[in-house]
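Data availability excerpt. The first of two example chains:
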Amino acid sequence: MNGQCVCGETIFEVELKNHDVHVCHCSICRRQTSGVIMTIDVEQGSLKFLKQDHLSVYNSSAWGERGFCNVCGTTLFWRTKDQNYCNINVFSLNEQPKDLNLDMEIYIDCKPEFYAFENSTKKLTEADVVALFNAESSDQN
Protein backbone atom coordinates (compact mmCIF):
# COMPACT_ATOMS: atom_id res chain seq x y z
CA MET A 1 0.00 0.00 0.00
CA ASN A 2 1.10 3.58 -0.58
CA GLY A 3 0.67 6.66 1.53
CA GLN A 4 1.82 10.22 1.93
CA CYS A 5 1.61 13.41 3.91
CA VAL A 6 -0.86 16.21 3.10
CA CYS A 7 1.56 18.16 0.86
CA GLY A 8 3.04 15.11 -0.91
CA GLU A 9 6.64 15.87 0.07
CA THR A 10 6.87 12.62 2.08
CA ILE A 11 5.73 9.45 0.31
CA PHE A 12 5.95 5.85 1.53
CA GLU A 13 4.97 2.28 0.82
CA VAL A 14 4.06 -0.23 3.50
CA GLU A 15 2.62 -3.68 4.12
CA LEU A 16 -0.17 -3.75 6.69
CA LYS A 17 -0.08 -6.41 9.40
CA ASN A 18 -3.89 -6.53 9.54
CA HIS A 19 -6.83 -4.15 9.22
CA ASP A 20 -7.29 -3.42 12.93
CA VAL A 21 -7.24 0.26 13.81
CA HIS A 22 -5.95 1.42 17.19
CA VAL A 23 -6.68 4.73 18.88
CA CYS A 24 -4.19 6.41 21.21
CA HIS A 25 -5.37 8.78 23.93
CA CYS A 26 -1.92 9.66 25.34
CA SER A 27 -1.17 13.31 25.97
CA ILE A 28 1.46 13.47 23.22
CA CYS A 29 -0.88 12.09 20.53
CA ARG A 30 -3.69 14.37 21.66
CA ARG A 31 -1.43 17.42 21.61
CA GLN A 32 0.12 16.44 18.28
CA THR A 33 -3.20 15.83 16.50
CA SER A 34 -5.65 17.98 18.47
CA GLY A 35 -7.58 14.79 19.14
CA VAL A 36 -6.70 11.14 18.94
CA ILE A 37 -4.56 9.38 16.41
CA MET A 38 -5.88 6.34 14.60
CA THR A 39 -3.15 3.92 13.58
CA ILE A 40 -2.70 0.56 11.95
CA ASP A 41 0.15 -1.87 12.56
CA VAL A 42 2.59 -2.60 9.75
CA GLU A 43 4.75 -5.62 9.02
CA GLN A 44 8.17 -5.24 10.58
CA GLY A 45 10.61 -3.56 8.19
CA SER A 46 7.98 -2.87 5.52
CA LEU A 47 7.78 0.93 5.91
CA LYS A 48 9.87 2.29 3.03
CA PHE A 49 10.06 5.95 2.10
CA LEU A 50 9.99 6.74 -1.61
CA LYS A 51 10.32 10.48 -1.01
CA GLN A 52 11.80 11.54 2.32
CA ASP A 53 13.71 14.80 2.02
CA HIS A 54 11.22 16.36 4.45
CA LEU A 55 10.78 13.40 6.80
CA SER A 56 11.63 14.22 10.40
CA VAL A 57 11.77 11.86 13.36
CA TYR A 58 11.08 13.06 16.90
CA ASN A 59 12.36 11.05 19.88
CA SER A 60 9.18 11.18 21.95
CA SER A 61 10.09 8.77 24.77
CA ALA A 62 12.83 6.46 25.99
CA TRP A 63 11.56 3.73 23.67
CA GLY A 64 9.52 5.43 20.95
CA GLU A 65 9.82 7.89 18.08
CA ARG A 66 7.39 9.67 15.79
CA GLY A 67 7.79 10.43 12.10
CA PHE A 68 6.24 13.44 10.42
CA CYS A 69 6.58 15.67 7.36
CA ASN A 70 8.43 18.84 8.33
CA VAL A 71 6.73 20.83 5.53
CA CYS A 72 3.04 20.23 6.29
CA GLY A 73 3.30 18.60 9.73
CA THR A 74 1.40 15.41 8.90
CA THR A 75 1.92 12.71 11.51
CA LEU A 76 3.03 9.58 9.64
CA PHE A 77 4.20 6.89 12.07
CA TRP A 78 5.10 5.84 15.58
CA ARG A 79 7.69 3.12 16.12
CA THR A 80 9.94 1.68 18.76
CA LYS A 81 13.51 2.92 18.53
CA ASP A 82 14.70 -0.62 17.73
CA GLN A 83 12.09 -0.62 14.91
CA ASN A 84 10.65 -3.98 16.01
CA TYR A 85 7.19 -2.38 16.11
CA CYS A 86 5.72 0.32 13.89
CA ASN A 87 2.30 1.73 13.18
CA ILE A 88 1.17 4.38 10.73
CA ASN A 89 -1.52 7.04 10.68
CA VAL A 90 -4.34 5.13 8.97
CA PHE A 91 -5.45 8.31 7.20
CA SER A 92 -2.03 8.81 5.60
CA LEU A 93 -2.77 5.84 3.32
CA ASN A 94 -3.81 6.86 -0.18
CA GLU A 95 -6.67 4.35 0.03
CA GLN A 96 -7.90 2.72 3.22
CA PRO A 97 -8.93 -0.95 3.11
CA LYS A 98 -12.72 -1.32 3.04
CA ASP A 99 -12.77 -3.68 6.05
CA LEU A 100 -11.03 -1.54 8.68
CA ASN A 101 -12.02 -2.42 12.23
CA LEU A 102 -11.67 -0.08 15.22
CA ASP A 103 -10.13 -2.66 17.52
CA MET A 104 -8.33 -1.09 20.46
CA GLU A 105 -7.89 2.09 22.50
CA ILE A 106 -4.62 2.62 24.35
CA TYR A 107 -3.81 5.00 27.19
CA ILE A 108 -7.51 4.78 28.01
CA ASP A 109 -6.83 6.15 31.49
CA CYS A 110 -5.57 9.38 29.85
CA LYS A 111 -8.73 9.89 27.76
CA PRO A 112 -10.64 13.08 28.56
CA GLU A 113 -14.25 12.54 29.65
CA PHE A 114 -15.83 14.71 26.94
CA TYR A 115 -15.65 12.14 24.14
CA ALA A 116 -16.12 8.40 23.68
CA PHE A 117 -16.27 5.94 20.81
CA GLU A 118 -19.57 4.15 20.30
CA ASN A 119 -18.30 0.69 19.36
CA SER A 120 -16.77 -1.77 21.79
CA THR A 121 -12.95 -1.96 21.76
CA LYS A 122 -10.15 -3.56 23.74
CA LYS A 123 -8.86 -0.98 26.21
CA LEU A 124 -5.31 -0.73 27.56
CA THR A 125 -4.13 1.68 30.26
CA GLU A 126 -0.80 3.49 30.18
CA ALA A 127 0.61 0.85 32.56
CA ASP A 128 -0.63 -1.93 30.26
CA VAL A 129 1.10 -0.36 27.24
CA VAL A 130 4.37 0.26 29.08
CA ALA A 131 4.37 -3.32 30.40
CA LEU A 132 3.66 -4.67 26.90
CA PHE A 133 6.61 -2.84 25.35
CA ASN A 134 8.91 -3.60 28.31
CA ALA A 135 8.06 -7.31 27.93
CA GLU A 136 8.77 -7.18 24.19
CA SER A 137 12.14 -5.46 24.73
CA SER A 138 13.05 -8.08 27.40
CA ASP A 139 12.22 -10.84 24.91
CA GLN A 140 14.65 -9.25 22.42
CA ASN A 141 17.61 -9.35 24.84
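And the second chain:
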Amino acid sequence: MESKRQQKFASLLQQDLAAVFQRDLPHLFPGLPPGISTVRISPDLGVARIYLSSLLASNGSTMLEQVRDNSKIIRQALAKRIRKQVRIIPELVFFLDDSAAYAAHMDAVLGTLDIPATTPEDANDPKTEDKGPAARPKLFADEDE
Protein backbone atom coordinates (compact mmCIF):
# COMPACT_ATOMS: atom_id res chain seq x y z
CA MET A 1 0.00 0.00 0.00
CA GLU A 2 1.31 3.39 -0.94
CA SER A 3 1.71 6.15 1.60
CA LYS A 4 0.03 9.52 1.16
CA ARG A 5 3.37 11.01 0.20
CA GLN A 6 3.82 8.43 -2.57
CA GLN A 7 0.28 9.03 -3.81
CA LYS A 8 0.75 12.80 -3.92
CA PHE A 9 4.08 12.46 -5.70
CA ALA A 10 2.58 10.00 -8.19
CA SER A 11 -0.24 12.42 -8.93
CA LEU A 12 2.25 15.25 -9.45
CA LEU A 13 4.33 13.12 -11.82
CA GLN A 14 1.28 12.00 -13.77
CA GLN A 15 0.12 15.57 -14.36
CA ASP A 16 3.56 16.90 -15.23
CA LEU A 17 4.44 13.98 -17.50
CA ALA A 18 1.21 14.49 -19.41
CA ALA A 19 2.15 18.15 -19.86
CA VAL A 20 5.65 17.15 -21.01
CA PHE A 21 4.23 14.74 -23.59
CA GLN A 22 1.65 17.22 -24.88
CA ARG A 23 3.39 20.61 -24.64
CA ASP A 24 7.15 20.24 -24.24
CA LEU A 25 7.94 17.26 -26.47
CA PRO A 26 5.17 16.85 -29.05
CA HIS A 27 7.77 16.48 -31.81
CA LEU A 28 8.90 13.14 -30.34
CA PHE A 29 5.45 11.62 -30.76
CA PRO A 30 3.94 12.11 -34.21
CA GLY A 31 0.18 11.93 -34.04
CA LEU A 32 -1.18 11.52 -30.54
CA PRO A 33 1.07 11.56 -27.46
CA PRO A 34 0.91 8.52 -25.18
CA GLY A 35 -1.60 8.61 -22.35
CA ILE A 36 -0.55 7.94 -18.78
CA SER A 37 -2.91 5.60 -16.99
CA THR A 38 -1.04 4.98 -13.72
CA VAL A 39 2.13 6.06 -11.93
CA ARG A 40 3.59 3.97 -9.11
CA ILE A 41 6.39 5.34 -6.92
CA SER A 42 8.93 3.39 -4.88
CA PRO A 43 8.97 4.13 -1.13
CA ASP A 44 12.20 6.14 -1.43
CA LEU A 45 10.68 8.19 -4.31
CA GLY A 46 13.66 7.25 -6.49
CA VAL A 47 11.93 5.10 -9.11
CA ALA A 48 8.68 5.85 -10.91
CA ARG A 49 6.92 3.08 -12.81
CA ILE A 50 4.77 4.74 -15.47
CA TYR A 51 2.04 2.77 -17.23
CA LEU A 52 1.18 4.14 -20.67
CA SER A 53 -2.20 3.49 -22.23
CA SER A 54 -2.36 2.79 -25.92
CA LEU A 55 -6.08 3.29 -26.50
CA LEU A 56 -5.64 5.94 -29.16
CA ALA A 57 -2.35 4.66 -30.57
CA SER A 58 -2.46 2.14 -33.36
CA ASN A 59 0.48 0.08 -32.14
CA GLY A 60 1.29 0.16 -28.43
CA SER A 61 4.60 -1.68 -28.61
CA THR A 62 6.15 0.79 -31.07
CA MET A 63 4.91 3.69 -28.93
CA LEU A 64 6.49 2.09 -25.86
CA GLU A 65 9.81 1.60 -27.66
CA GLN A 66 9.74 5.21 -28.82
CA VAL A 67 9.13 6.44 -25.26
CA ARG A 68 11.85 4.18 -23.85
CA ASP A 69 14.32 5.39 -26.47
CA ASN A 70 13.63 9.01 -25.48
CA SER A 71 13.39 8.42 -21.72
CA LYS A 72 16.47 10.54 -21.00
CA ILE A 73 15.00 13.53 -22.84
CA ILE A 74 11.64 13.00 -21.12
CA ARG A 75 13.30 12.88 -17.70
CA GLN A 76 15.18 16.13 -18.42
CA ALA A 77 11.98 17.89 -19.52
CA LEU A 78 10.23 16.59 -16.39
CA ALA A 79 13.13 17.84 -14.25
CA LYS A 80 12.67 21.37 -15.64
CA ARG A 81 9.04 21.29 -14.56
CA ILE A 82 9.35 19.84 -11.03
CA ARG A 83 12.87 20.84 -9.95
CA LYS A 84 11.60 23.36 -7.38
CA GLN A 85 9.15 20.89 -5.83
CA VAL A 86 11.29 17.79 -5.30
CA ARG A 87 14.85 17.00 -4.29
CA ILE A 88 15.49 14.01 -6.52
CA ILE A 89 14.08 13.50 -10.00
CA PRO A 90 13.02 9.84 -10.07
CA GLU A 91 14.25 7.33 -12.58
CA LEU A 92 11.46 6.73 -15.10
CA VAL A 93 10.59 3.16 -16.07
CA PHE A 94 7.86 2.83 -18.70
CA PHE A 95 5.43 -0.06 -19.12
CA LEU A 96 2.52 -0.69 -21.44
CA ASP A 97 -0.85 -0.74 -19.68
CA ASP A 98 -2.95 -3.40 -21.38
CA SER A 99 -5.90 -3.27 -19.00
CA ALA A 100 -8.15 -1.66 -21.64
CA ALA A 101 -7.32 -4.41 -24.15
CA TYR A 102 -7.98 -7.02 -21.47
CA ALA A 103 -11.34 -5.41 -20.64
CA ALA A 104 -12.29 -5.44 -24.33
CA HIS A 105 -11.30 -9.10 -24.56
CA MET A 106 -13.37 -10.01 -21.49
CA ASP A 107 -16.32 -8.06 -22.90
CA ALA A 108 -16.06 -10.08 -26.11
CA VAL A 109 -15.88 -13.34 -24.15
CA LEU A 110 -18.91 -12.43 -22.04
CA GLY A 111 -20.76 -11.36 -25.19
CA THR A 112 -20.37 -14.84 -26.68
CA LEU A 113 -21.88 -16.64 -23.68
CA ASP A 114 -25.29 -18.19 -24.24
CA ILE A 115 -27.28 -17.24 -21.15
CA PRO A 116 -30.99 -18.06 -21.38
CA ALA A 117 -33.15 -15.12 -20.54
CA THR A 118 -35.95 -15.54 -18.01
CA THR A 119 -39.33 -14.47 -19.29
CA PRO A 120 -42.54 -13.59 -17.43
CA GLU A 121 -44.06 -16.90 -18.60
CA ASP A 122 -41.34 -18.77 -16.69
CA ALA A 123 -42.30 -16.94 -13.50
CA ASN A 124 -45.93 -18.16 -13.76
CA ASP A 125 -45.00 -21.73 -14.64
CA PRO A 126 -46.16 -24.07 -11.81
CA LYS A 127 -43.10 -26.30 -12.32
CA THR A 128 -40.73 -23.47 -11.37
CA GLU A 129 -43.00 -21.92 -8.76
CA ASP A 130 -41.52 -21.55 -5.29
CA LYS A 131 -43.12 -23.84 -2.74
CA GLY A 132 -42.37 -21.57 0.20
CA PRO A 133 -39.95 -22.13 3.06
CA ALA A 134 -38.83 -25.66 3.82
CA ALA A 135 -40.31 -27.39 6.86
CA ARG A 136 -38.27 -27.10 10.02
CA PRO A 137 -36.82 -30.44 11.11
CA LYS A 138 -37.84 -31.80 14.49
CA LEU A 139 -35.01 -31.79 16.95
CA PHE A 140 -36.81 -33.54 19.81
CA ALA A 141 -39.43 -36.29 19.80
CA ASP A 142 -41.95 -34.37 21.95
CA GLU A 143 -41.77 -31.21 19.81
CA ASP A 144 -45.13 -30.11 18.34
CA GLU A 145 -45.45 -28.56 14.93
